[in-house]
Amino acid sequence: MPTTRSTQKRSRVLSAGQKNRMQRSTFAFPKERKEPLNDARHVRNAIARFDQVGGVSDAERDAAWRRIRAAARKYGVEVSARGWRQLMKGGRTGKSRSRSG
Length: 101
Hints:
With 101 residues, the chain is mainly α. The chain has six helices and two strands, in the order ααββαααα. It has helices spanning 5-12, 16-21, 40-48, 58-75, 84-88, 92-100; strands at 27-29, 34-36. Helix 3 (40-48) runs antiparallel to helix 4.
């Protein structure tokens, strides 16, 4: 039986309950429980949204980037950025840093 588009979309979005049941180590930012890394699609999403995560230190970003890179290798996701700072260029956080610096 073919799957409808709405069914496919629902199966991709994690509910709050699903996120709550996931181990902290499954997230790029485990303390905040942000950016799950449980499959290739979520890894790509974590990379795309990396600059949108606020309220974290550079050390937390370093650790998150290591977790993202490990998950990318596990799920076969190619990462062209050499480091998380490349992702910040042009993003919300990157713009605010350039103005204050």
